[in-house]
Amino acid sequence: MKQLIIGLTGPTGAGKSTWTAALKNLGCRIIDCDQLAREAVQDPDCIKNLQRAFGEDLILSDGLNRKELAKRAFQDAEHTKLLNQITHPVIRALLEKKLQSLSKEPTPAIIIDAPQLFESGLDSRCDFVAAVLAPKEIRIKRLQKRDGISAKAVLCRMSVQHSDDFFRKHSDFILDGNLLPEQVRGHASEFLQQVLEGNA
Fold first, then answer.
1. Is 16 exposed, middle or buried (0-12, 13-18, 19+ CB in 10 A)?
2. CATH 3.50.30.30 for domain 5-199
3. How does the average pLDDT of the chain come out, rounded?
4. Segment among 1-10, 20-29, 55-64 with least mean pLDDT
5. How far is 192 from 198, CA to CA, in rounded Å?
6. Buried b (16+ CB within 10 A) or exposed e, 118-156
7. Which segments within the chain are labelled E, that is strand?
8. What is the domain partition of the chain in residue ranges?
9. pLDDT at 32
10. pLDDT in the model for residue 59
């Protein structure tokens, strides 16, 4: 039987990383698309394209100024789309290499952890898609604490992302991002069992 591939997505600050950690503890292999994105922007051709689109001054002595890139790219939907057009092809190529390297490993499932699962077209590589959702107020507080940014900056970032309704419409499963980490562990086990039984 072929390996099961589950796409795990959701809006920023919803609690996806907690679910990812729980699924990893259950033996799933994780492909972190945020990490792939960091690798993508180290690609020389990708860097050149980003400089053309967002400014030559994005390069510092120690590499790409990712914080400034995010500030410019997430200022509106048009700039975010431009960022995606440049980086997503590189990320997809890196993902395929990862999938190939994991193809022989014993695992209940491979999890593609991707905030931009739909935007990048990676949902087409998945057998199932699960979205982690949480109330907007909780997400704002989490992002302020995690990234050290203002509520205004958080709202600007959130404004260019899909709505909860979009995720509900396009996902096979909705996972609760409002749970405590110790609660997620049990729910993750139930979720994985449900997916595996549905794929049997």
1. buried
2. no
3. 90
4. 55-64
5. 10
6. bbbebbebbbbbbbbbbeeeebeebbeeeeebeeebbee
7. 5-9, 29-32, 59-60, 63-64, 110-113, 128-133, 173-176
8. 5-199
9. 96
10. 81
Evaluated on CA atoms 15, 16, 17, 18, the torsion sign reads positive
CA quadruple 133, 137, 143, 146: dihedral sign: negative
Cα dist. 166→8, 68, 77, 119 in Å? 14, 28, 16, 12
How far is the CA of 120 from the CAs of 60, 78, 81, 160, in angstroms? 27, 15, 10, 15
* pLDDT score at 1: 52
Distance separating alpha carbons of residues 55 and 69, to the nearest angstrom? 9
Does residue 97 register a pLDDT over 70? yes
User: Would the pTM count as exceeding 0.90?
Assistant: no
Per-residue pLDDT, 7: 97
- How far is 41 from 125, CA to CA, in rounded Å? 22
Report how far residue 9's alpha carbon sits from residue 15's, in angstroms, rounded to the nearest whole number.
10
Mean pLDDT, to the nearest integer, of 79-87?
Answer: 90
The closest of 174, 187, 181 to 128, measured between CA atoms, is: 174
The stretch 103-118 carries a mean pLDDT of 92
The residues with which 29 forms a beta bridge, in sequence order, are: 110
